[in-house]
Amino acid sequence: MTQRTESTDAGPSGGFLAEIKDAVTVRAALLVLGVLALQLAFITSYIGAFHQPKPSEIPIAVAAPVEQLTERTVKQLDGLPGKPLDATAVQNRATAVEQIENRDVDGALIVNPAGTTDELLVASGAGASLSQALAEVVGIVEKAQGRTLKITDVAPADKGDARGLSSFYLVIGWCVGGYLCAAILAISAGARPANSARAIIRLGALLLYSIAAGLLGTLIAGPVLDALPGSIMVLWGLGTLVVFAVGAITLAFQGLAGVVGIGLAILLVVVLGNPSAGGAYPYPLLPPFWSAIGPALPPGAGTYAARSISYFKGNGAGGPMLVLAGWAVLGSAVTLACAAFRRGRPGAAVGSGLPGDSLSVPRFAGEGTEG
């Protein structure tokens, strides 16, 4: 006769509540709440930036044969309700075209006192929605005076660049590659680099990736799809800088906050950076907060520079390139500083299950107890 025995392999059971606590740790719950907050911020930022585009102080030049007429027109445009335009007097049409090409203004009104038709110069390469907004606002003013408007596009978007958005999507793709590359480095070998040497290696790997991503993105947008004109070499350099800057920021956040740093990078680049980049709606059409932060963030700086390179002979690209370089230097410096501060303490790989960054925590229950 055999005696019945009970198996205790599964260990003591504490009921369903205990199973929940074991399946979803406090750390996991906090991370999920963080994801929820990031998701809500994403929804709020995109809808907040795009739900009601409104022109605000769009820079526009005004030229007329008579100085008094020019001054009167400038005053009239500046005095429109809500201040949709910011008018500046220029000497003649040639000067107005030059200012548009230099990206000093977004359009120009050429007044013809000898007739009833004036000319509005626009640049759809800077964004079709901006050109349309200018035409709409100035058209209302002209119609109220019994005049008509002829529109001339002096910097038109390429035929393969629908609404001038290709540069925006190209830069967004580069940004995505930058923070995903940095995140993968964290997933494979720990969010925080163990020492300065490993931090340098990560930055070196990121640089190589940035060079490849910059070139391939440029080739796809240019020769392959024929969507974006401009110098391949210059756009390649911009792409390399965008990818490296975003990746370096992500590595820096990871050095400061571990895996949470990936979320912080997404908050900065995606939640705040993308809607304020001036892609679908350039800066003068965005709400004040978004138009203020856009030029200082990588997506906005990259988009403005890409449009400048493609349609304005590189004019106006210097400032945005400096912004991107600043982010790249800052991200690299913080990454190296965090690694040096850790003094050889390696970080746990993301998803390893370790509660902290210390290797002193055994990975398996029986590890180090054999024999």
Structural commentary:
This protein is α/β, with parallel strands linked by helices. Helix content is 56%, strand content 7%. It is built from twelve helices and five strands. The chain has a five-stranded mixed β-sheet with strand order 2-1-3-4-5, with helices on both faces. Helix 3 links the parallel strand 1 and strand 2. Helix 6 packs antiparallel against helix 7 (196-224), helix 6 (166-189) packs antiparallel against helix 9 (260-273) and helix 8 (232-257) packs antiparallel against helix 11. It is elongated and about 90 Å long. The model is unreliable at 5-11 and 347-371 (pLDDT under 50).
Shape: elongated
Cα-atom radius of gyration:
28 Å
On the 0 to 100 scale, the average pLDDT is 87
What structural class do helix, strand and pairing data support? alpha/beta
In helices, the fraction of residues equals: 55-70%
Adjacency order of strands in the biggest sheet: 2-1-3-4-5
The helix count comes to: 12
What proportion of the residues form beta strands (DSSP E)? 5-15%
- Largest beta-sheet characterization: 5 strands, mixed
Order of H and E elements: HHEHEHEEHEHHHHHHH
DSSP strand count = 5
End-to-end C-alpha gap: 36 Å
